[in-house]
Write a structure and sequence with these properties.
The complex is a heterodimer of chains A (359) and B (228). Chain A has nine helices and 21 strands. Chain A is α+β, with helices and mostly antiparallel strands and 359 residues long. In chain A, the strands form four sheets. In chain A, strands 7-8-9-3-10-11 form a six-stranded mixed sheet, sandwiched between helices. A five-stranded antiparallel sheet of chain A has the order 2-1-4-5-6, covered by helices on one side. A five-stranded antiparallel sheet of chain A has the order 14-13-12-15-21. In chain A, strand 4 and strand 5 form a beta hairpin. Chain A is globular. With 228 residues, chain B is mostly helical. In chain B, helix 6 crosses helix 7 and helix 6 packs antiparallel against helix 8. Chain B has a single domain, classed as MetI-like (MetI-like fold). The chains are: A alpha+beta (359), B mainly alpha (228). Chains A and B meet through strand 7 of A and helix 6 and helix 7 of B.
Chain lengths: 359, 228
């Protein structure tokens, strides 16, 4: 776990970033925000690649920056691992030499070579030069190289967003393995909520260089008042559920969260496993009475927490609580009026689809 | 081999070699600074460095002659330190060649350094490489072609130097009598035989050097891939 204390002010042209935060980064802190909200600037300040006009950065017991005391720890002494949007591999070195470059400078604390290579599936790439690698392969090498430098803090700057979008799905499982296996506190800037719903534990929402919200991801995704979260097609909720049992005859898996259960197709995990579920808001229908004779198996009892109506849009966002979790549903305004939903009302949430956020 | 002035050929090669070695060392920090400085007067320095490209060699030679004289700025200092005059000496030729060939070493290096780009260096810094470490392990190897170009141009330009040599070096055998001067004298005295031989030696030598360097460069770039 890394405790990060930030107090930053910077101006760059007409852009200004002002943040004063105390963050406990236990796992992955996701950072979202529209273009120009300051996401990349935040990472660059943390890495020491840019200097703020005024500010202070403390990581655990180490002070990386204190403009008042005149302390500026240079990037190469900060022990950060950074993966950029472009992989930035050293073109004159092959993959092995790129990794060695990092390991040699980690002062003996580099992780085991074989473990890094295996986690990122680089066995067959080691003798290749960066120019001969695909975009996804380059990004995997960049991630491995960052790990070999034994960072205290891993900074990922939209690692999936580079030009070639084809490798998104290829790379995501590797990211997940890295995060799980190496347990390095990570700040992950992302362009889409999907990858963060899968990987992040906390979410920081930046808007115009200021904090708009910060907190556990389930809480932030449930907020109806954040356009960074609400305005997207992939809007939804995450729920950490526990596998209860398998139904081998029908090939279903029962999962529980709070007092609710859901079933998923297939035999997933082992009883007792914790799995993160992703519920897309548009996959949820609402009913005021429990429907009978319906093929949908996942029906949650829930209560309406809040409703947000945008007169300019055909749909409305309804925030429910169910089993102790916040669940977002997106229905049409017409349905909302027909059902006469009000805050505090008990309803049934019909889940048309449940997917695993991580496996 | 009779009839070829090997002394002049050796002196020329020595002058070109020493000048190239000094210039690669000298131009490295200068080119690095020019590639990265954002100061307003960097433009002035850049113009000053490029001056030998446009200035007639005799103009350059004239000013150097005055500066190198025993009562000139550098000449006086040189005389005091070494006890020798700087004009009409091999040392004077080296100093003049270094100044005259400065843009030929600086400009390719500056372009090479700028071509490495900040992204690679930032990545190096996040991996724990200090500024000098980044320069030695990233900038230098990635600027290999820039160094080859700088060395070839400097060497070739010094080989062909004539106007400046004539102004400040004169024609002292074994000291300042380089091939271009010897060749000029041979033609002046209508000794076309000697002129032919000297010219052929210089032509063959230059072509061989270029062939070796560019051949090597090609092999290198093939191994490194495009853009390196």
């Amino acid at each position: 776990m890394a405790a990060i204390k930030l107090d930053l002010a910077m101006t760059l042209g007409d852009f200004s970033l002002e943040l004063s935060e105390q963050l406990q980064i236990d796992g992955v802190l996701g950072v979202v925000g529209s273009n120009g909200a300051g996401k990349t600037s935040l990472l660059r300040l943390l890495a020491g690649l840019d200097q703020p006009r005024r500010g202070r950065i403390d990581i655990g017991d180490h002070c990386w920056l204190d403009t008042e005391a005149g302390i500026v720890v240079p990037t190469h002494k900060r022990r950060v691992g950074m993966v950029f949007q472009d992989a930035r591999l050293f073109p004159h070195l092959n993959v092995t030499e790129n990794l060695d470059f990092a390991a040699q400078r980690a002062g003996g604390s580099a992780p085991a070579w074989g473990e890094v290579v295996q986690t990122l599936g680089l066995e067959t790439l080691l003798q290749r030069r960066p120019t001969g690698l695909s975009g996804g392969e380059q990004q995997r090498v960049a991630l491995a190289r960052a790990l070999m430098s034994a960072p205290q803090l891993l900074l990922l700057d939209e690692p999936l967003s580079a030009a070639d979008r084809g490798y998104r799905d290829e790379l995501l499982p590797y990211l997940r393995r890295v995060i799980r296996r190496f347990q390095i506190p990570t700040v992950y800037v992302a362009h889409t909520l999907d990858e963060l719903a899968q990987l992040a534990d906390q979410l920081l929402v930046l808007r115009d260089g200021r904090r708009a919200a910060v907190g556990p991801i389930a809480h932030i995704l449930a907020r109806l008042d954040l356009p960074e979260v609400s305005g997207r097609d992939e809007v939804g909720s995450v729920i950490d559920a526990v596998v209860r049992d398998h139904d081998p005859a029908y090939l279903l898996t029962q999962l529980a969260f709070g007092d609710q259960t859901v079933s998923m197709t297939g035999l997933i995990g082992q009883p007792g496993d914790r799995l993160r579920l992703r519920l897309y808001a548009t996959d949820i229908a609402l009913a005021t009475e429990k429907p009978e004779a319906i093929s949908i198996r996942n029906i949650l009892s829930a209560s309406v927490q809040a409703i947000r109506v945008d007169p300019g849009s055909p749909s409305a966002d309804v925030l429910l609580t169910s089993g102790g979790y916040a669940v977002r549903a997106r229905v049409t305004r017409a349905s909302l009026d027909e059902l006469g939903l009000v805050e505090g009302q008990s309803v049934f949430a019909l889940l048309k689809a449940v997917s695993l956020a991580s496996d | 081999m009779i009839g070829i002035e090997w002394q002049a050929v050796a002196l020329t090669a020595q002058l070109a070699g020493v000048t190239t070695a000094i210039l690669l060392l000298l131009a490295t920090p200068l080119a690095w600074w020019l590639a990265h400085s954002t100061r307003p007067w960097a433009g002035w320095v850049e113009a000053l460095v490029a001056l030998p490209l446009v200035l007639p060699p005799t103009v350059m030679g004239f000013y150097l002659l005055l500066w190198f004289a025993p009562d000139g700025g550098l000449g006086a200092l040189w005389l005091e330190v070494t006890g020798q005059p700087l004009n009409f000496s091999f040392a004077g030729l080296v100093v003049a060649s270094v100044i005259y060939s400065l843009p030929f070493a600086t400009q390719p290096l500056q372009a090479a350094f700028a071509g490495v780009g900040p992204g690679i260096l930032e990545a190096g810094a996040t991996l724990g490489a200090s500024p000098s470490d980044r320069f030695l392990r990233l900038v230098l190897p990635l600027s290999r072609r820039g160094y080859i170009t700088a060395a070839v141009l400097t060497f070739a330009h010094t080989l062909g130097e004539f106007g400046v040599v004539l102004m400040i070096g004169g024609n002292i055998p074994g000291e300042t009598r380089v091939v271009s001067v010897a060749l000029y004298e041979a033609v002046e005295t209508l000794d076309y035989g000697s002129a032919h031989r000297l010219a052929a030696v210089l032509l063959g030598f230059s072509f061989t050097v270029l062939l070796l360097v560019y051949g090597l460069n090609r092999r290198l770039s093939f191994r490194l891939g495009p853009g390196v």
